[in-house]
């Protein structure tokens, strides 16, 4: 059985999370998601998928802007995806063929970010829960597959998707905590394994064998937001809880990433005091550290390609 020796600690943690909500964003019911704007055709692309962390939630302090989507635009500018794109513009070689003369990097690199946070109810729209692996399979993965197939399997290498990033999994695991049911946590981890494997397999099939895919391990904010007593239990779930495919949520992410030729951005343990907006999301400095982890993962991916 996955859940065993730390049951008492985990039950205490689920009570905490029931009071403070998920470590990643939660939300309302179900609603349609607006399609992301299409980048100009014929140019290289960075494609991001994920949850509220990939959406940059709370990377910018709440403003006087009333419109939810205007606030989201501020988050996206200060999260990790937009700064990573800026880094990749200099780090990538986006010519049709790799060339030592590509001194200009990839200045025309475009961005499509399919990630989202929970969407609050608005009028007749009942809202949307935070992204899980299952909702990503339904909402984001078909768009990503179509984009990858259209660009990476056409006759024009200039418009290829150059890199995909994936940040998902925290919501469903911490949602299981709220039930205070060890069997529910075990089931959530098993579901995550199946879904995460499917996501990576389908991305790899659409992208081809060589395109970099960068995933992300999850951080533990509890020691830094007033709940240090629960930090060890959260670390156990993230790094040590036995599962059929690795220890903890992050171990699963590492092992499945390796199985599909992806590289994890190692975020666990990198954020600390002063890096969290609340018990759910990083602040600006926290997202800057996540960006650095993705840059390091990119360098690892390039080293593996030789």
UniProtKB/TrEMBL annotation:
GO molecular function, one term: hydrolase activity, acting on ester bonds
Gene3D superfamilies: SGNH hydrolase
CDD domains: SGNH_hydrolase
A Pfam cross-reference name: Lipase_GDSL
Keywords: Signal
Domain of life of the organism encoding this protein: Bacteria
Keyword Mitochondrion in annotation: no
InterPro entries per the UniProt record, alphabetical: GDSL, SGNH_hydro_sf
Signal peptide: 1-34
Listed name of the protein: SGNH hydrolase-type esterase domain-containing protein
Lineage, top ranks: Bacteria, Bacillati, Actinomycetota, Actinomycetes, Micrococcales
């Amino acid at each position: 059985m996955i859940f065993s020796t730390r049951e008492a600690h985990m039950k205490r943690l689920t009570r905490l999370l029931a009071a403070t909500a998920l470590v990643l964003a939660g939300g309302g019911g179900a609603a349609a998601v607006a399609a992301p704007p299409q980048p100009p055709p014929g140019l290289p692309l960075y494609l991001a998928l994920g949850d509220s962390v990939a959406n940059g939630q709370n990377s910018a302090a709440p403003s006087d802007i009333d419109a939810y989507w205007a606030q989201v635009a501020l988050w996206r500018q200060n999260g990790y995806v937009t700064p990573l794109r800026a880094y990749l513009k200099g780090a990538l070689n986006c010519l049709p063929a790799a060339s030592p003369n590509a001194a200009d990097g990839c200045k025309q690199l475009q961005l499509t970010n399919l990630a989202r946070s929970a969407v609050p109810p608005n009028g007749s729209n009942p809202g949307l829960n935070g992204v899980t692996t299952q909702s990503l399979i339904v909402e984001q993965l078909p768009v990503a597959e179509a984009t990858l197939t259209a660009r990476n399997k056409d006759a024009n290498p200039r418009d290829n998707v150059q890199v995909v990033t994936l940040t998902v999994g925290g919501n469903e695991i911490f949602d299981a905590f709220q039930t205070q049911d060890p069997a529910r946590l075990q089931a959530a981890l098993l579901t995550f394994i199946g879904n995460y494997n499917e996501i990576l397999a389908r991305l790899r099939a659409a992208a081809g064998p060589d395109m970099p895919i960068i995933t992300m391990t999850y951080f533990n904010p509890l020691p830094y937001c007033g709940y240090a007593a629960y930090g060890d239990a959260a670390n156990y779930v993230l790094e040590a809880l036995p599962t059929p495919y690795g220890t903890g949520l992050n171990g699963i992410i590492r092992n499945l990433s390796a199985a599909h030729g992806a590289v994890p951005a190692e975020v666990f343990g990198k954020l600390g005091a002063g890096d969290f907006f609340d018990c759910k999301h990083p602040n600006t400095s926290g997202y800057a550290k996540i960006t650095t982890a993705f840059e390091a993962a990119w360098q690892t991916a390039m080293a593996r390609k030789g």
